[in-house]
């Protein structure tokens, strides 16, 4: 990034006005400013008094009529993710890693996987979520000696977050069906 871009970004960050009373769901970062990555879009709009912009109109091609633009409660896909989009994407990645994990990983891979999880917990963009994950891992050491054990551990980690958010827990005996093999009823089969 060029120095002028850094200066403009820093100036923009410094000019961000924080309302005295924050709406529910707005999380402040360590700098005392609202954390965009830790706050869901609806809370962000409530804080700023803004409304979702209309989605861009897609250009019509020769064979279709023009598409009307619509207003949605979410930001366009090319905007930075809010805490919910980031969480969904992260869990998809983590569960997919467990699904591809070897049934009998080498000691080196086990060590690297534990290191990855530790780094993931430290680098996660939502600092509140990162701290929660680190705390959970301190009490629940990653179990990475097999695919089965790792998948169950990851499911338990996900359920701990779901519980905090007031969501339903997932039956961890079915993690492999959900993330690796597909449901037994065949709905995931090509």
Automatic annotation (TrEMBL):
Residues 63-77 have a biased composition (Low complexity). It catalyses: 2 R'C(R)SH + O2 = R'C(R)S-S(R)CR' + H2O2. Keywords: Disulfide bond, FAD, Flavoprotein, Mitochondrion, Oxidoreductase. Residues 1-24, 49-78 are annotated as: Disordered. One of its GO terms (molecular function) is flavin adenine dinucleotide binding. SUPFAM superfamilies: FAD-dependent thiol oxidase. Its cofactor is FAD. Residues 79-179 form the ERV/ALR sulfhydryl oxidase domain. Its EC number is 1.8.3.2. One of its GO terms (cellular component) is mitochondrial intermembrane space. It comes from the Eukaryota. It is found in: Mitochondrion intermembrane space. PANTHER family: ALR/ERV, FAD-LINKED SULFHYDRYL OXIDASE ALR. This is Sulfhydryl oxidase. It comes from Ophiobolus disseminans.
